[in-house]
Design goal:
single chain, mainly beta, Cathepsin D, subunit A, domain 1, Deoxyuridine 5'-Triphosphate Nucleotidohydrolase, Chain A, seven-stranded mixed sheet, disordered N terminus, disordered C terminus
Length: about 240
């Protein structure tokens, strides 16, 4: 596995109720889980049959494989069964290898910093454990009625004051509890706004201080085109009729 590991090649997956940071490593032929994580999650370690008992790490040292484990991971709501080799003294607790990428049709887009799974069935943002992530939180408790969009006031880090930011949905909440629109917002005095949607058939209450979106630098945008949405009087009347119905 001689491969330069990219700091931004991590995604967050769920194993049961536990969130685990996983390295997506195109240089690893196999998916690996550390002995420590397997013990912590109480995974059943099965004996190896014809498989090799040793792998070679990126720095050339041998990794002892003590068995394999069947794991059900959750990526953005999609449950995926995988087989991982259980290894002692590995540098990362969970490594998704090429076997996982081939089996589940994984595509890594470094331009958008997104990993897609299952022929773009679900997506997960790539991130770095070494970079501080900023979030938006709602300033006041709000109630969003069923099947309604709302623009709510959000608290931002003051280092973004007088700057434009890109708001991105949180993979742990997007289309599960609510939906957040990717947008460009301006920050002032530690405040900005965020467009949210409640797609549920019941009202949604967000308690003050809830994480609702992540913050990205506008430099991640390759191009931006303004769209003019000017409705004609006829369109407006037809929309009103539809909403009344």
């Amino acid at each position: 596995m001689r491969h330069l590991i990219c700091n931004d090649n991590f995604i967050t997956v769920k194993m049961g109720m536990k969130a685990v940071r996983a390295l997506v490593d195109t240089g690893s032929v196999s998916t690996l889980v550390s002995k420590e994580l397997a013990d912590r999650l109480r995974l059943k370690v099965l004996p190896l049959k014809m498989e090799t008992l040793f792998l070679v790490s990126a720095n050339g040292t041998a990794l002892e494989v003590i068995g394999k484990a069947e794991i059900l991971i959750n990526i953005s709501g999609l449950q995926i069964p995988i087989t991982a080799r259980v290894v002692r003294h590995v540098s990362h607790q969970f490594i998704l290898g090429v076997d996982f990428m081939r089996q589940d049709q994984v595509i890594i887009d470094y331009k958008t910093v997104i990993l897609s799974v299952g022929d773009d069935l679900v997506r997960a943002p790539l991130h770095s454990p070494y970079r501080r992530q900023s979030y938006l939180t709602n300033i006041n408790s709000v109630c969003i009625p069923a099947f309604t969009e709302a623009i709510i006031s959000a608290k931002s880090d003051k280092r973004y004051d007088d700057m434009a930011i890109v708001t991105e949905p949180l993979s742990s909440f997007q289309f599960k509890k609510f939906a957040v629109a990717c947008s460009i917002s301006f920050c002032n005095s530690g405040r900005t706004v965020c467009r949210m949607g409640n797609f549920n058939p019941f009202s949604l209450v967000l308690i003050k201080g809830t994480k609702i979106a992540s913050v990205e630098d506008p430099k991640v945008i390759a191009s931006c085109t303004r769209v003019n949405q000017t409705a004609t009087p006829q369109d407006s009347s037809s929309m009103s009729k539809q909403s009344i119905d």
